[in-house]
Amino acid sequence: MSKQSSTDAPDDAEPPHREQIRVVALGAVRRDDELLVFEDESEEVGTYYRPLGGGVEFGEHSVDALRREFREELEVELTKVHELGTFEDAFRMNGEEYHEVHRVYGAEFVQQWPYQMDSFTAQEPETGEELDCLWKPLTDFTDGEETLFPEKLPDVL
């Protein structure tokens, strides 16, 4: 009979995001007056949008995480990366509680293909989840027509 190590989680353990703050690096890439976002939905807000990016790993700087995420999801390189701000949100999504700190960077693509397409699909390598990416006019978010996360991002764009 083997003993359960202290690192093994019991079957009834909370999901890893519970009671943890997740740091996320997001890239605000623009095409004229449009922002590249992915579209998703939740029980709480319905359809919403968020810039592409992902979690920062332990020991990784957020700007390096941003570059890694864009390489993994879109196979593109970023240039002219600059900090736009840090935002913090505690929220419910599909019945689960989350707490995230968003490090948001403005950037441009080295490759031109994303600018030439109005929408495309990216794939999250860890989960295999497909992300529906599209260019949305900034006015959709500043006029309050659509929901963008982080919610205060339109103020700095």
UniProtKB/TrEMBL annotation:
Pfam families for this protein: NUDIX
Transmembrane segments: none
Chain positions covered by the region annotation Disordered: 1-20
Gene3D superfamilies, alphabetized: Nucleoside Triphosphate Pyrophosphohydrolase
Domain Nudix hydrolase: 24-141
InterPro entries linked: NUDIX_hydrolase-like_dom_sf, NUDIX_hydrolase_dom
Protein name as it appears in the record: Nudix hydrolase domain-containing protein
